[in-house]
Amino acid sequence: TGIFKNKNLILILMESVNNIAINEELFPNIYKLYNEGISFENNYSPRNNCSTGNNELTVLTSLYSINNTCTANSYKRNIYPQSLLNHFNNNNYETSSYHDYVEFYYSRRTIYPNLGSKIYRNASDLGIKWSGLYEEWPSDVDLIEKSVPYFIDENNFMAYLVTVTTHQPYGKNSEYGNKHLEELSDYNYNIQLKRYLSKMTELDTALGLLVDKLEKQNKLDDTVIV
């Protein structure tokens, strides 16, 4: 329709998030973005061989992944001229991508440049604290704090952010799984669900911080958040 022509774009792939996030009391920032923007109800999520990597690939290319292989890693050296990042490159945008973990599972340093990202930065590049323990995932608040300064001053930018705080497991103690438990004390949920919601609270805080940063830089009205 052209209603967003020449706007900046921030595309966020949220780890392990579904409709439980549409909760005004618990997650006011996600609720606000969902209800004050354009939302789509007719959708589905495929069950991929490697959920995160393959969904990242699908989001940027609209291609179905191959179900019996980790498509993102298996075809990491392919180039994707039709990718969303390359559409923005072709329109003279500054493209970049960010993730608050390191390269243990997916070859993003190869994958993202081949998808068209001019720059890719992970947790180490951004100076975000991370752990090799599977139950400990970094903070998405740190992702916003560290990544936004790299692109917010560009005249036309397209930034792709992949979050991680809400990653499983939820059956073990973890920094962000426990951080907001007191705020959930009135809810009659089991501890696994409460840990998940605690992690969701950290993500929601991160999204609120993103909006605040855009507003302070007078970029909010010229930026689309997906």
Question: What structural keywords apply?
Answer:
single chain, 226 residues, alpha/beta, 5-stranded parallel β-sheet, 9 helices, 5 strands, 11% strand, globular
How would you sum up this structure, described in words?
The chain has a five-stranded parallel beta sheet, with helices on both faces. The chain has 226 residues and is of the alpha/beta class. The chain is globular and about 50 Å long. It is 37% helix and 11% strand. It has nine helices and five strands, in the order βααααβαβααβααβ.
How would you sum up this structure in a few lines?
This protein has 226 residues and is of the alpha/beta class.
Reconstruct the topology from this structure:
Elements: E1 8-13, H1 28-36, H2 51-61, H3 71-74, H4 84-89, E2 94-99, H5 108-114, E3 119-121, H6 123-126, H7 140-151, E4 157-162, H8 175-179, H9 191-216, E5 223-225
Parallel strand pairs: 1-4, 1-5, 2-3, 2-4
Helix pairs in contact: 7-9
